[in-house]
Amino acid sequence: MDRSDIDALVLDYLVHEGYKTAAEKMVEEASLSPPTELDHVDDRMKKQRQDVKLTRVLKLLMWLEKQLATKLEVETLDWMGPSKPSSASSASPQTKPDNGDSKPTS
User: Which spans does this entry mark as compositional bias, Low complexity (predicted)?
Assistant: First the structure.
């Protein structure tokens, strides 16, 4: 691999990662022809920043939605009052067979 190949790889990296000023300086100092992507670095980096901001906003909205749903669930349960016992626990307690010597319970 010769020097011009290495310069081209480094320049490609700089452009791809958004280091426009460094790429322009390298083009100038190494007498390389500027890649066409160099003109679009600012636009691409701006779009990436917007995408990151949008992702953060969406994550925040999802978190808020979860918090709200939890709060509404708790408030709904509080509003409904104590939950009704299940059918198994609401059945009358089992009574011992009456052998005539105990008083009826109410």
Answer: 82-93
pLDDT digits (tens, 9 = 90+) for 19-66: 999 999 999 988 888 888 888 888 888 999 999 999 999 999 999 999
- Around Cβ 25, how many Cβ atoms within 10 Å? 12
Q: Tokens 């300086």 correspond to what residue?
A: 25
For 22, 68, 103, 106, the CA distances from 99, given in Å and listed in that order, are 100, 58, 10, 17
Report yes or no: 24 and 4 within 8 Å, Cβ to Cβ. Answer: no
Stated pTM of the model = 0.48
Spatial distance between the Cα atoms of 53 and 55, rounded to a whole number of angstroms: 5
Q: What are phi and psi of 95, to 5 degrees?
A: -105, 150
